[in-house]
Amino acid sequence: MAQPKLRMRLGDLLVNELVISDVQLSQALAKQKQTGQKLGAALIELGVISEIQLLEFLARQLGIPFVDLGQIAVDANAAVLLSEVHARRLRALVIHKDADVLTVAISDPADLSATDTLAGLLSPHQLEYVVVRESQVLEAFDRFYRRTREIEGFAQELKEEYASSDEFNIGLVTANDESNETTVVKLLQSLFEDAVQVGASDIHIEPDEKVLRIRQRVDGVLQESVLNEVQIASALVLRLKLMSGLDISEKRLPQDGRFNIKVRGHSIDVRVSTMPIQAGESVVMRLLDQSTGILSLEQTGMPTDIMERVRRQLHRPHGMIVVTGPTGSGKTTTLYGALTELNQPGAKIITVEDPVEYRLPRINQVQVNTKIGLDFSSILRTTLRQDPDILLVGEMRDQETVEIGLRGALTGHLVLTTLHTNDAITSALRLIDMGAAGYLVASSLRAVIAQRLVRRLCENCKHPQPLTSEQKVWLEHLSNDNLSESKFYHGRGCQSCNYTGYKGRVGVFELLELNEAMMECLRRENPDEFSKVAKAAASYRPLSLAALDYAKQSITSVEEVLRLVEEIDLYGSVVGDLDEAH
Question: What's the pTM value of the predicted model, to 2 decimals?
Answer without folding.
Answer: 0.74
